[in-house]
Amino acid sequence: MQRVSRLLFAASLIACLNVSAHAAGALAVGSCGAYGEAHDFPNVAAARAAALRQCRGEQCQVVATLRGNCAAFSVDMANACGASGYASGPHLGKAQNAALKSCYGKGGKDCVIRVFVCDGR
User: Fold this and answer.
1) Inside any domain, residue 7
2) Residue 62, domain member (yes or no)
3) CB neighbours of 66 closer than 8 A, spacing ≥ 6?
4) φ and ψ at residue 36, rounded to 5 degrees
C-alpha cells in the first residue's frame, strides 16, 4: 500500500512539473511606454496574442517570448516617448539590468523598469 501511494505521489509530481514545463509567456511593447505582458499560457501563440491585447499603445509588437525565462521593459521617465529598452534572460535581475542598459544606451536620462515578467519558474 505504501508503495502505491509513493507511485501516485511521484506521478502527480511529474504531472505538475510537466504543466509548468509547457507554460509560455510574452512581452509586447509599443510607443510612449505602452506594454502588455502575459505568463502561464498553454503555448507561445496564446501568450503573444494576450500580450498584444494588453498593449494599449501604437506600434505594439512582441519583443520577447518566454519559456522558463524572464523579460523586462524600461523607459526614460524624463520622456516616456523617448528612450526605452527591453531584454530577456534566464534570470530576472539580468533581464532588468540589460533593459536598463539598453534604455541608457539609447540616450535615456532617468530609465526605470516599467514592467517585468517571468514564466515557467
Assistant:
1) no
2) yes
3) 24, 25, 26, 27, 39, 47, 88, 117, 118, 119, 120
4) -145, 140
Residue 14 lies in a domain: no
The residues that bridge with 37 in the sheet, in sequence order, are 27
The pTM for the full model equals 0.79
Side chain identity at 30, as an amino acid letter? G
What is the extent of the structural domain holding 62?
23-118
Q: DSSP strand E in the chain: where?
A: 24-29, 35-41, 61-66, 70-76, 84-89, 111-118
Question: SS3 of 46, please?
Answer: helix
Note the pLDDT tens digit of each residue in 10-48.
444 333 444 445 689 999 999 999 999 999 999 999 999
Domain count, the chain: 1
